[in-house]
């Protein structure tokens, strides 16, 4: 089908499709569109966000079955073929012959690309190697100076995953301040968030009443946009003295205080009621996995708090009061 038709049909399943490049739309039309339509017939919605344990098990099953079908002897060879140049041509031929794209995504209502990335993360032996030593941190800084942000090359040199080296460099690339936030840092954070919010609104609503000349003026935006995922690496650069995870945590803290008056999960009777209400709402969802919970709906129901804050409170309750919680189901 044509590019415009593909984009239009995909929009039913992927709300942000207008921000996806033409080349990606072509790939999704081939890999995903028919799958999405089949899932729709079954009453299953396309999902995004964190993968559930059930989905992880399905990926494991899909990979194991494909290895058994093709005779490829490891998941690493299948998913990181470039590490095995002598077997590269054979593996590519087998993947094409046995429809790798279809097999790996079987039973999972998500875009193929996300499933593939998740599989690579699950089966990369370099992905879970513990804390970085001082020597590794020095090597990482040296390699980044030589190769820039070519994380694929750096990950190969360090035998760590792409994501791991990129995130670790984000933490160590400047002098990180772990103390309380200063008024100046907080001001920079708020200005950075405001700037990316305004740019997002302008891109989505070209006819918006404000312009770049009104950069110092306040503007109204929906609560949902306030709580959405922001480009934290960009915000980190604008703040200068904190890395992206600190910026995200501080923003969520500010947002929670503003939206709830700082009262929602405080100590005392009202705080206890809020915690009990949270547990009740989660129980009512009948979810089998925390990633199946619609945290926005739960957040709205218990006091209009940001979803990240409510998720954090649930995590604290679980860790503090549930013995051996890691061994239990949701």
Automatic annotation (TrEMBL):
One of its GO terms (molecular function) is chromatin binding. It holds the Pfam family Myb_DNA-bind_6. SMART domains: SANT (SM00717). Residues 124-161 form the HTH myb-type domain. GO terms for biological process: termination of RNA polymerase I transcription. GO terms for cellular component: nucleolus. Residues 124-172, 173-255 form the Myb-like domain. This is TTF1 factor. It comes from Sylvia atricapilla (blackcap).
